[in-house]
Input
Amino acid sequence: MTIQVIKDTIESTISSSADGVELVRYIKLLGYTSGSAEQKLYNVLKHSSIPKVGEFHAKIPFIRVTDVSVNPIDAGSFMVAVTYGTYSFEKEAPSETSKGTKQIGSSTHQVTHQKNNQGKQLKVSLNIRDKKTGKTERKEQIVEVDMEFPTTVIQWSRREPKHPIAKSRFYTGSVNRISVWGFKPRTMLCLRIEGISDDGGKTYDVNYEFQYNAPTWDVQLVYIDAEKDKPHEQVDTPSGNGLGIERIYPETDFRNLNLAL
Output
């Protein structure tokens, strides 16, 4: 019988302490009515739907699976408790050049947009009727809207021999000056570099996080009509009239972090 996920996250608990955040997620499964008791439990534990030790949580940054336990409910169903917390790298030798572990996912950030999904300028028109003459005048206005733009987020974690303060101050908030990890210049933004030590500062579990933006992280400038507080009606995207692009983020070489996809 094939294992089926009956319900994911039936309930969950989360707590915070000096050791960090701990979350327990419960998954109910049905299947494998044949075989020994130990075989059933092992098959459930290794099933593809069950997160593996070391995997990041999908929503909460920098907590990973630290423990997975399987308990039988009856002859053919099981309850799996997946515990997330601060992952320990004690078995790994501290290194600033090791591959470490990585997770790739998606996130969103809000951007101001002036085009529809076909690349055409967003405009709205209004027919204004003169009450005295009865004549109608049609006016058109360029529109700006805020939208949630999906981007790729990449996280690395590894145990390092010293604190990452210098790296955090230098790289966080900067974009890649040259191509890195297969991404073009200025398309990767360093969101954070954080370190946690559980041995009094001898070593640190260092977490890196970067966000990808395909058009680059450069910002677009738009000429605003001061009277209407809107883009001027003669702003033209095809010709670039009234538009500009500027680099505002510091640019650094991420290759020096010795991270690899």
User: Anything to note?
Assistant: The helical segments are 37-45, 165-171. The mean pLDDT is 83. The radius of gyration is 26 Å.
